[in-house]
Amino acid sequence: MADDDSTTLKKAKKSKHKKKRQRDNDEDRKAKKKHKKEKKKLKKESIDDGDDTSVTAKKAKKAAKKAKKEKKRKQKELDEKIVSSSAIEFYPDDLKTLQLAKNQEDEKQKAAAAAAEAKAAAVAAEEKEQSAANSVNNITLLLFYQYVEPCWDDDQFQVALKFVTDQGNKYGLTGRMRVAKEGLNCTLTGSHDGIRNWCAALRTFDGGRSKIDQVTGEKITEFAKTEFKLTDDLPPKQRFPKLHAFEVVEIVNYGLAGSRAPEIAKYGGTHLEPEDYNNKMCEKDTVIIDVRNHYEANIGRFNPPEGGAKMIDPMMRKSTEFPIWLDKPETKEMLRGKQVLMYCTGGVRCERASALLKQKIETEDDTKSLGIKGVYQLQGGIDKYFKQFPEGGLWKGKNYVFDKRFSHAPPKVEAVDRTKKVLGEGEVAKVEQVVDGIPASAADEILGACEGCSKPWDMYRGKRRCPTCGVPSLICRECFDKDKSGVKKLGRDVRCDLCIAEDVRNKQQLREREEREMKEYENNIKQKLGEKYEPYMQRKHAITRKPKPNPERITRLFLKNMCAKQMDEEKLLEFLHPAKVTHIQWLTDRNTGAFYGSAFIEVKTAEDAGSVLAANGMTVLGRRMTVKYQKPDEKSIWPVPGTEVDL
Questions:
Q1: 103, 235 in Cβ contact below 8 A?
Q2: For strand 219-220 and strand 228-234, is the pairing parallel, antiparallel, or unpaired?
Q3: By three-state DSSP, how is residue 554 classified?
Q4: Among 34, 186, 253, 598, whose Cα sits 20 to 30 Å from the Cα of 567?
Q5: Would you say residue 279 has pLDDT above 50?
């Protein structure tokens, strides 16, 4: 009986706990249901009451999605500004294998030579040799330029110079950087990633003066839309040995710095992509100006079809001759009623050239009356044209370049030529399949000729230059070897084709002509610019000359070791610019009266004197000039009457 009561009691207790759990579960469900209803009600009320919290969240999500999409679009746009191609893209497989093996062998020999010269660096040599064993065509070449308007001031220039140099060292780049207050012009080599990382870093550089896009609110930098032209897969031997940053007045030396520089944003020519430019060359009433030097055009140039554009070679030895050539009456007649196309190696020389012509059209009556129908330039230059027309398009011959390649044909044509030389004539069929049937004869088109024997030749090699004008000499291998061995020396009568055509026989003859033409041109510029006129700045050291301290505020200086034959007032003022020289006392021989290379000068301010002293040791007309502060003698009259400079 007792057991039954105990069992009944346990069942009752168990039932009680079960009901309690059931009740708790029911209450939990009710609470959750109630909470869900309240949440739903609150959400509805928030919308009904005009609470825009949820709407804001949706807008934020939508804006984030849009921003992400815009970022992708901009990245794609930037990627399109990197124009790249491979140096061996069109080689057949057999040639690729041979080329890579040759590169490895060259690197091994280079490493062995380094080890022999520096036995103490055995470990480093071993690492270099191991690296060479694994090397391939892994060098990337970068060509680019960018003008900045308005120009950087002194502080911004120094920041830009430091940035590009530091970043170049960081990513292991080599090559040349022309850095001016008006922008950059660079030819660089490095690894595939190193070059691209440097480009990416430059895109972010603002020099402390970035702009804000009024639509997106994002920062716009000086180099946000710069076009970088890359050539990948070059052999290691085409890498520059060091990185050099040159401080220059202009990124292309036209003599158009300061007040005489036409604004590119305002006057620059219309940029045409290679395909559009190619079509334009086929149009009548069109002229094409090759803005390069004649020795470049001598081995390769565009060849428009019959009935299309007419080629014009200004026959220049250097870019400073272009403004003078453009001002000549005979030049203007060639442009009358025509569309004007311009091209150069990478595009940079066309920027100022096209802007100068358009400025003349808008500001000078005689140029405006020519009825020129438009000024166009090839975007990216010949380099980009080759990337879009690898078989050559309307191009004939070689493209002269200022890097370790020296010159090159369009990539598909070069592949045919390389295959013939390395694998033999019988293997050309293989490469023709790769390059869409480019005929082997295309690689045999040589436009230039050896200056020594007149045989067809288009390779500038060695350090010989024309003895009369100084441009690179086009000398074939046989003539070069004979000259080197003494079998048949190349005399002073072996001149460039331009000197022969113009009957220039010595340096003095050429110099006198250049000085005469420059003087006429400068007089015209002076009349047009009036008070804004500034002397032509020829020297590359103009912006590197930082004024020296002048605590005693001396304004008289002594100059010596100047070139007695060539130095005159105009040249001295030009070199010392921007310092304002007020008096020049040329020191002459007491007996003969001949100037012997020394002078006293007076400048306007103590700061001008510091600027002149900074020129101490610089080379002027082939001589290293010495400059010193020189206080005037209290007993002497200074400045000497009759020594005033016409300012």
A1: yes
A2: unpaired
A3: coil
A4: 253
A5: yes
Q: Which residue has the higher pLDDT, 431 or 212?
A: 212
Closest C-alpha to 244, from 164, 143, 151: 164
pLDDT in tens, 169-192: 999 999 999 999 999 999 999 999
Place of tokens 């530091």: 166
Side chain identity at residue 98, one-letter code: L
CA atoms of 118 and 113, how far apart (whole Å): 9
Q: Is the peptide bond before 150 cis (omega within 30 degrees of 0)?
A: yes
Q: Which residue from 540, 546, 537 is spatially nearest to 246, judged by alpha carbons?
A: 540
Q: What is the mean pLDDT of residues 109-117?
A: 65
What whole-number distance in Å separates Cα of residue 447 and Cα of residue 166? 42
Residue 42 confidence (pLDDT): 54
State the catalytic residue, choosing from 151, 186, 282, 344. 344
- The amino acid at residue 267 is Y
CA distances from 69 to 384, 475, 564 (A): 29, 57, 68
- DSSP per residue over 92-149, as a string? -HHHHHHHHHHHHHHHHHHHHHHHHH-GGGHHHHHHHHHHHHT--S-EEEEEEEEE-S
**What residues does 629 pair with on adjacent strands?**
557
Asked if the model's pLDDT at residue 258 lies above 90, the reply is no
* C-alpha pair distances (Å), 158 with each of 145, 608, 626: 18, 21, 27
The Cα 103–Cα 92 span in angstroms is 17
d(CA 80, CA 388): 13
Residues 385, 272: contact at Cβ < 8 Å? Answer: no
Q: Tell me if residue 419 falls in helix, strand or coil.
A: helix
Q: Would you call 476 a catalytic residue per the annotation?
A: no
